[in-house]
Amino acid sequence: MAARTLRIGLIPGDGIGREVIPAGRRILEALPASLGLKFSFIDLDAGFETFKKTGVALPDKTVDTLKKECDGALFGAVSSPTTPTKGYSSPIVALRKRLDLYANVRPVKSVAPTPAFPDPIDLVIVRENTEDLYVKEEKTYDTPNGKVAEAIKRISEHASSRIATMAGEIALRRHRVRNATDGVSGKQATVTITHKSNVLSQTDGLFRQTARTALEQARFRDAGLVIDEQIVDSMVYKLFRQPADYDVIVAPNLYGDILSDGAAALVGSLGLVPSANVGDGFAIGEPCHGSAPDIQGQGIANPIATLRSVALMLEFLEQEEAAAKIYQAVDENLSEGKYLTPDMGGKAKTEEVMEDVLKRM
Ligand code: ATP
Ligand code: MG
């Protein structure tokens, strides 16, 4: 069988993005040849450094190359300017828009049992990424009692349906992978729809109803997918009391944003948590952390969030076996706990963690 070549765009961005994205490239190059996969890499610019040099944070060339020449991509991190900077806006936000990456997918997995959370946490938050309050249609006006500001919260059937469908697919895929790896997983594939339709009956009501309809499709029902729902405030409570109870959570943009960061706190360092920006047929893996200027250049950035983001990207490129290989090597490194970076309480450098993970590949 001829090896398949996947073309991957590499956008390190700023700060520790430049230290962790090369680690992402190395893990792809270390995948065993028996998987029949080859990779070609294209280095691409974006970020605050790019903005300072060229006046644009996201060059058109980066977007064009991603569209025309790449199957997937890895994005490191970008620094946000500390003072408002004219003409600068976040390149990853723009990239999501221009490539219609309508989902932000964030898996959260615990390393080891703790007294607070004795059962393993292994869940995924699927956040809608194009609408809700983030359409940024705000206005301010004067009244006799002072200023009033308003923002539009927009929810559409189209966006709610496609995000719920993606959540359903992720839940089924996880179920398949779980069954393939431990064979005895008692967990059923479940999607929990999160909303506040008791108060916002039209907007969140539409999200809830549309998501439900999407998840009731025959292909999900036939595969045994369980549909669950939670009002967002009680979701927060339960997520922090019993995170092990959850599988896939789907939410409109704002609730998804808040739940994602909250859930990341359940498992310790930001340096562990991956994400993917996903559209139809394209995925960008992106660690959840920022550019971490406080540790930049010291060679101690935790590469795990990036390695997991690489695996997540591979899942969306339908390379489940390759993804599983990376997850396994990372989990082994963490559970042995011999080579951990300082954010995890260890003393290892990025390079030492990489050598340990690569050895396990
Ligand atoms: P930015 O504006 O780019 O988000 P920030 O100052 O908010 O930068 P973050 O990257 O969000 O920094 O990180 C928050 C904290 O977590 C910092 O103290 C940082 O050092 C730490 N941190 C983040 N990512 C990692 C990582 N991969 N390895 C080790 N520590 C990390
Ligand atoms: Mg930050």
TrEMBL record:
Q: What EC number(s) has UniProt assigned to this enzyme?
A: 1.1.1.87
Q: What is the similarity comment for this entry?
A: Belongs to the isocitrate and isopropylmalate dehydrogenases family.
Output the superkingdom of the source species: Eukaryota
Which biological process, per GO, is one annotated for this protein?
lysine biosynthetic process
Please give the coiled-coil regions recorded for this protein. none
First-tier enzyme category under EC: oxidoreductase
**Mind telling me what this protein is named?**
homoisocitrate dehydrogenase
| TM spans (from-to) | none
Listed pathway(s):
Amino-acid biosynthesis; L-lysine biosynthesis via AAA pathway; L-alpha-aminoadipate from 2-oxoglutarate: step 4/5
- Fetch the InterPro entries from UniProt: IsoCit/isopropylmalate_DH_CS, IsoPropMal-DH-like_dom
Q: Which cofactor does it need?
A: Mg(2+)
Q: Which UniProt keywords apply?
A: Amino-acid biosynthesis, Lysine biosynthesis, Magnesium, Metal-binding, NAD, Oxidoreductase, Phosphoprotein
Return the Gene3D superfamilies for the record.
Isopropylmalate Dehydrogenase (3.40.718.10)
Question: Boundaries of each Isopropylmalate dehydrogenase-like domain copy?
Answer: 7-357
> What is the organism lineage in this UniProt record?
Eukaryota, Fungi, Dikarya, Ascomycota, Pezizomycotina
Its source organism is Extremus antarcticus
